[in-house]
Design brief:
523 residues; alpha/beta; 10-stranded mixed sheet; binds zinc ion
Length: 523
């Protein structure tokens, strides 16, 4: 499928750098992709065209099929799309703990760029770590957020209270430093500790800092269910933050979690559509699974019990005076999530592969007591089957919803979200045409986060390009085997270099750190 012509290349550097098209188009390319069906990242229908790459840029979309090139890819029978951009992952540990990580699980889905630091952020020493990443190399491009949770923990630990004026100033400085270093915006995880201890005013104050740098407010909502302010209240809060602080709002992994809020997708779509109509830029991402993924304590244990430190949490759990109250709240949380059979241990644990119901039977105790034991025994990751297919479909078709994986260890979404979204939404249900799936996985993400030189197959943009075989593009990972690589990506270019070639992952580390751009994208 690939042949090398080894003709001497003549590159017009201006075309490579500035995206000038003919008459300055190169006479010869580094890579030429011919005969493919090209979806360019817009919602336009596909067309047959030949793509020329010079250096790390796309320099022609109308190349001659017989032009000279160092590498020629024959994409007959295949589709050519922009490399997908995943706006929500939890790849930090993979990236920072494994030098030169290729992010293979994402590459094999056609993803060329991932964002990290979502849900309030979990990057310690983030600026130093990112510099290390730059020097070590990385398989995919990486964009990152300033994390409210990371900032709060650094400034005031896990204390369940509002910051004083001095602490608030320190939080502002933290976000300011990150934005200057290139963060895409401010992320919050208001459902989680310690984000849950912050009120809306605190979040608005920090979002104002991100707004000064044209950042985006990216939020894991305070409540995706009926835990505290309710799903509708939490969507309203996110919109309020963006509207008051003056920046775009992006809601992470939008869903109606749990039986109390099933059917509320219409209401949240109404709230977001109304906000968009009055000029607030609100978008969301979504992963195509009925199960969310979290850890046992986050799903069941009240936040006040988790305050201050792990030791304090275990003391409260062991306190006989608190026992009835804690168990009552945990039972309500378990009911909300669908009961003990709907929680499946997926993380590293002796209980892996078992539901909480099965664990409780084996332990001979109630599900809530068994859950406390499992938390004590390592607090593993779980899959929580809590979504309704009708809500998933209603959210999926909104023009402001994009694909995201929320990829976290133990859940197959980390290995399979993009091909599964393609199978579920384009092939099996005809919810959307192929071009819309491509747009919501590439161009829409670039537009939303201001990545002005990625996301589309257009002259001058970075050559992040996937060549897919739709006959074989499919998810393989499932809840029993969550780390199976997806199939069907025949070639993947990241900044013009092959990350996958003829279906094989290369040793290339051509990913770059993706910084916020202050330019308004022209597309
Ligand atoms: Zn999240």
């Amino acid at each position: 499928m690939m042949r090398n012509t080894w003709k001497k290349s003549i590159w017009f550097i201006s075309a490579a750098l500035f995206g000038c098209s003919s008459p300055d188009a190169p006479l010869s390319y580094d890579v030429l992709i011919v005969n493919g069906t090209v979806y360019d990242g817009t919602t336009n229908e596909p067309r047959q065209s030949n793509i020329g790459i010079a250096g790390d840029r796309i320099v022609s979309l109308t190349a001659d099929a017989d032009a000279a090139a160092s590498t020629i890819i024959d994409a007959s029978g295949l589709i050519v799309v922009p490399g997908f951009i995943d706006p929500h992952t939890h790849a930090e540990a993979d990236i920072f703990d494994t030098p030169g990580n290729r992010n293979v699980n994402f590459l094999a889905q056609g993803v060329s760029t991932v964002f990290i630091g979502n849900d309030g952020g979990v990057i310690d020493d983030r600026i130093g770590q990112l510099e290390t990443l730059r020097t070590q190399g990385i398989g995919t491009n990486v964009g990152w957020f300033s994390g409210h949770g990371t900032a709060r923990e650094a400034v005031m630990g896990l204390e369940n209270r509002a910051p004083n004026e001095e602490e608030l100033e320190a939080l502002r400085d933290f976000v300011d430093d990150d934005m200057r270093a290139g963060a895409l915006g401010l992320s919050t995880g208001l459902f989680y500790r310690p984000g849950s201890y912050a009120d809306t005013e605190e979040v608005i104050e920090l979002a104002r800092v991100a707004a000064r740098y044209n950042g985006v407010y990216d939020s894991h909502l305070r409540d995706e269910s009926s835990y505290n302010i309710g799903l509708l209240g939490a969507v309203s809060e996110a919109i309020e933050v963006g509207e008051t602080a003056g920046l775009p709002v992006h809601i992470a992994h939008l869903k109606a979690l749990g039986r109390d809020v099933w059917g509320q997708s219409g209401d949240i779509i109404g709230l977001i559509s109304a906000a968009r109509e009055r000029g607030v830029d609100v978008t969301a991402d979504q992963y195509p699974w009925r199960a969310s993924g979290t850890r046992f304590n986050n799903a069941l244990i009240p936040r006040w019990v988790m305050a201050d430190s792990e030791e304090a949490m275990y003391e409260r759990l062991a306190n006989a005076d608190l026992s009835d109250g804690i168990r009552e709240e945990m039972e309500a949380n378990l009911w909300r999530r669908g009961g003990a059979e709907s929680l499946l241990v997926t993380g590293d644990s002796e209980w892996r592969g078992m539901t909480l119901g099965q664990i409780a039977t084996e332990m001979g105790m109630s599900p809530t007591d068994a859950a406390i034991e499992v938390v004590r025994g390592g607090n593993p990751s779980i899959a929580s089957f809590n979504m309704n297919p009708d809500d998933i479909s209603a959210i999926a078709i909104q023009p402001w919803v994009m694909t995201g994986s929320d990829g976290s260890t133990g859940h197959p979404r980390k290995y399979a979200s993009y091909p599964k979204a393609y199978r579920d939404f384009v092939v099996d249900s005809s919810l959307m045409p192929m071009e819309k799936f491509v747009h919501r996985s590439s161009g829409l993400v670039a537009d939303t986060f201001g990545l002005c030189d990625r996301g589309y197959l257009a002259e001058g943009r970075k050559a992040d390009i996937a060549v897919l075989d739709l006959n074989t593009y499919r998810p393989v990972a499932d809840f029993q085997n969550p780390t199976e690589l997806a199939t069907g990506v025949v070639h993947l270019f990241v900044n013009g270099a092959a990350a996958i070639s003829d279906g094989e992952v290369t040793t290339g580390l051509s990913g770059e750190l993706v910084h916020r751009q202050n330019l308004q994208c022209s597309q």
